[in-house]
Amino acid sequence: xxxxxxxxxRYRLVGGIGxxxxxxxxxxFDETVGRPVAVKVISEENAADEREVRRFVxxxxxxxxxxxxxxxxxYDLGQVRGAGLVTHYLVMELVRGRSLADVLKSGVxxxxxxxxWAGQVCGALDAAHRAGVVHRDIKPENIMxxxxxxxxxxxxxxxxxxxxxxxxTSTGSxxxxxxxxxxxxxxxxxxxxxxxxxxxxxxxxxxxxGERPFxxxxxVSLMYQHLHETPRPPRxxxxxxxxxxxxxxxxxxxxxxxxxxxxxxxxxxxxxxxxAPTPEELKERADQAWQRGVDGGPAEAVRLLHTLIPxxxxxxxxxxxxxxxxxHDLAVWLARSGEPAAATALLRDLLPALxxxxxxxxxxARDLARWQAEATRRGPGxxxxxxxxxxxxxxxxxx
Length: 399
Hints:
With 399 residues, this protein is of the alpha+beta class. It has three domains: 6-93, Phosphorylase Kinase, domain 1; 97-272, Transferase(Phosphotransferase) domain 1 (Transferase(Phosphotransferase), domain 1, Orthogonal Bundle), CATH 1.10.510; 279-393, Serine Threonine Protein Phosphatase 5, Tetratricopeptide repeat (Alpha Horseshoe), CATH 1.25.40.10. 47% of the residues lie in helices and 15% in strands.
């Protein structure tokens, strides 16, 4: 086939897109409907192989029964006869964008995008698994990131129904990419949707750490790593995300998340971050910080209060008395830890905000006068701290 050929009097080939395991993918134009499409044509070497033809047709039936916004849409299945050979082809939605493999060549993507894409792949897998379909080759090359920034799962060409006997592959053959194959795929064990979840764990590890969980250079070594070695926690992942990735990479499928829907839910929770603490919880943490100072750890009290104040500002409000009281507490422990200049600077910023609370303002003014005298006695050279506005916004601590 070449540019300009028209398949079945309808699909005009515009240009080659790429070559996969089973055939060549073309960009084409559907002259009946009037839209660009992708046409996947089984390769000549496979067209004469009855087993490969059966697998190719099975792909069409598999994909044709899946409907999901994050799965490439199948439009049509056709045949071309010539030179005594029947060549099958699929007509699919043309997805414009880049493969996730190409995206990763530019480095680790922004966390929000990575979690969004992984969640969208979970949505696609959930739909496929509920239909009894295992993809069997989840990898960055089979995940397209569209121009709109959405993920779409491609190439169900090696998927098969879970309920179908293993009749489309020769005995002992392994279909899929070795860097993403689950232990049960290597060992010939029972395969279900949790094998796709393992592969997704490998992809998510790569999205987070910028490297695959296992990096052996030979298939035999990779097999050993997938079967026997525990991967290191992925660099750059917070505890909840790291725990999820390592659970996806569990050797025993029973130890992985139950299904893709659960993974998608957990990814959404991780993306949203931990729930906001209640005012009562914040007060308890502030009391604990104060007690830490009383017990002989003023510097530790400063550290705890410094990280707590932005939470007070978000939950209670910047001018709420509870927030301002915690700022005053911080000033107390700054002074007691040997930083009277930082304490007085904070109190000086705090006084205008306390105008509506005469008693709190009087306490702050008294402490300001006391520690201002101490700062003057010590002279210059004390540690600088961020102003009140930056503290409430969560500015990193200086010093």
